[in-house]
């Protein structure tokens, strides 16, 4: 099969992998090296670093052949789709050729499971090893790892890749038992634990090396292990897990394995699918609200049980309100927490105010050391002042009595029904 035809098939098959962000990697370039590549430049597949840089990644599967029969997967063993497979040399050549033409800055490589998990993982590692050792490639590499693979192969992957990811697939083990009986959360989490342990061991070795060689800064210490950490992905809506189940699993994964990101993928029907799967696609708005909730878990100090707590008869228990963002939803259910005084209250309280993000709160805390906060300061910070006003007190503002009823506020901020339908298409 021609390489171009393989690329068309395997790039299309990789589109279901959402976890392709490149944040957190060490900055590298080819200065002082013998090869090519950079993980720190400015920008196929676009991902965004925390500083706003756009990173273009070649996002492909090594192969879409797979021995597993996951009901929700387009590449399952019984699926009637065109199949293709790259050799490791072809992936290396494509990556270098695309980089030299300024199409990409890195590689996102996944694969169906062929022969055995160890064989598949070994093929992925071979690609990364060849790029790093044979060609001194210094761009970004993200490898999707195989949960059942040997721990030494995972360790080798971490030595060459910037980020590793292992898909948890579904929020609960019951869901896996029904739709992917060959997979097990215990095996997946064991692999996550191995990656975390390796990462922490390498970090400790580097700290020890810096202490020993502090007087000789040019001495080489041990290399970094997956410096951009690990991530995972789960499918939303393929089975009856609630948003509370999903966020509970998400919070547990962050706490237990120090993941950098959990990605959510709204279920979409596939050809010749199992009768156990829904006939309709999952709302993209649900996926969007889960991402907003994930942000609250990671940066705003919310607990998973707070975000989906009941209190509105219009919302199914355990589910997120699709009409308003989860931060505003929490504020409407907890009016006794407000108003928050922008000039006196602590950072955790300020972070609960709708319309105020982490950067805005940090700037407000800095400003109020020298002057009293006024509404004009929120405008200057480009904060969501319309959302914040019913919930705050500052030098020249107190919320009006008319703003008190939560139902009225919800009606003010909820999008029109037509907009909701447009978003979900």
What does this structure look like?
The chain is of the alpha/beta class and 425 residues long. The chain contains 16 helices and nine strands. The chain folds into two domains: 1-22 and 40-207 and 223-282, Aldolase class I (TIM Barrel), CATH 3.20.20; 324-422, no CATH class. The protein has helices at 3-13, 88-100, 117-134, 151-160, 173-179, 185-212, 243-257, 284-299, 304-307, 326-333, 347-350, 358-367, 375-380, 385-388, 406-413, 417-424, and strands at 45-48, 54-61, 106-110, 140-144, 163-165, 230-236, 261-266, 340-341, 392-393. A seven-stranded mixed beta sheet has the order 1-2-3-4-5-6-7. Strands 8-9 form a two-stranded parallel ribbon. Helix 2 (88-100) runs parallel beside helix 3. The protein is globular, with a radius of gyration of 24 Å. Keywords: Iron, Iron-sulfur, Metal-binding, S-adenosyl-L-methionine.
């Amino acid at each position: 099969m021609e390489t171009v035809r393989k690329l068309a098939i395997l790039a299309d098959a990789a589109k279901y992998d959402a976890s392709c962000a490149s944040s957190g990697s060490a900055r590298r370039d080819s200065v002082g090296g013998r090869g090519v590549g950079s993980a720190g430049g400015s920008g196929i597949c676009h991902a965004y670093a925390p500083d706003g840089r756009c990173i273009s990644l070649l996002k492909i599967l090594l192969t879409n052949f797979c021995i597993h029969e996951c009901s929700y997967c387009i590449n399952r063993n019984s699926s009637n789709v065109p199949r293709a497979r790259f050799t490791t040399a072809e992936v290396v050549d494509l990556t270098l050729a695309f980089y030299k033409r300024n199409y990409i800055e890195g590689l996102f490589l996944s694969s169906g499971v062929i022969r055995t998990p160890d064989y598949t993982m070994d093929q992925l590692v071979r690609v990364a090893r060849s790029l790093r050792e044979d060609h001194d490639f210094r761009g970004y590499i993200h490898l999707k790892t195989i949960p059942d693979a040997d721990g030494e192969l995972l360790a080798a992957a971490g030595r060459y890749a910037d980020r590793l990811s292992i898909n948890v697939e579904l929020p609960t083990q019951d869901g896996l038992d029904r739709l992917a009986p060959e997979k097990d959360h215990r095996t997946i989490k064991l692999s996550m634990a191995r990656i975390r342990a390796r990462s922490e061991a390498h970090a400790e070795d580097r700290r020890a090396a810096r202490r020993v060689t502090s007087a000789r800064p040019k001495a080489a210490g041990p290399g970094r292990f997956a410096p951009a950490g690990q991530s995972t992905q789960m499918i939303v809506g393929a089975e009856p897990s609630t948003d509370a189940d999903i966020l509970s699993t998400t919070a547990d994964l962050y706490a237990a394995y120090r993941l950098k990101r959990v990605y959510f993928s709204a279920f979409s029907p596939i050809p010749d699918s199992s009768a156990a799967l829904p006939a309709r696609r999952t709302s993209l708005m649900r996926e969007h609200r889960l991402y907003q909730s994930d942000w609250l878990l990671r940066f705003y100090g919310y607990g998973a049980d707070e975000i989906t707590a009941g209190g509105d008869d219009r919302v199914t228990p355990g589910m997120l309100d699709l009409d308003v963002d989860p931060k505003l939803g929490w504020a409407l259910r907890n009016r006794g927490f407000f108003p928050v005084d922008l000039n006196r209250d602590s950072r955790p309280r300020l972070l609960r105010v709708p319309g105020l993000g982490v950067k805005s709160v940090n700037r407000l805390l800095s400003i109020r050391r020298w002057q009293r906060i006024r509404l004009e300061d929120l405008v200057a910070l480009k904060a969501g002042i319309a959302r914040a006003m019913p919930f705050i007190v500052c030098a020249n503002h107190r919320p009006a009595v008319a703003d008190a009823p939560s139902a009225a506020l919800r009606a003010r901020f909820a999008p029109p029904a037509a907009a909701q339908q447009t978003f979900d298409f």
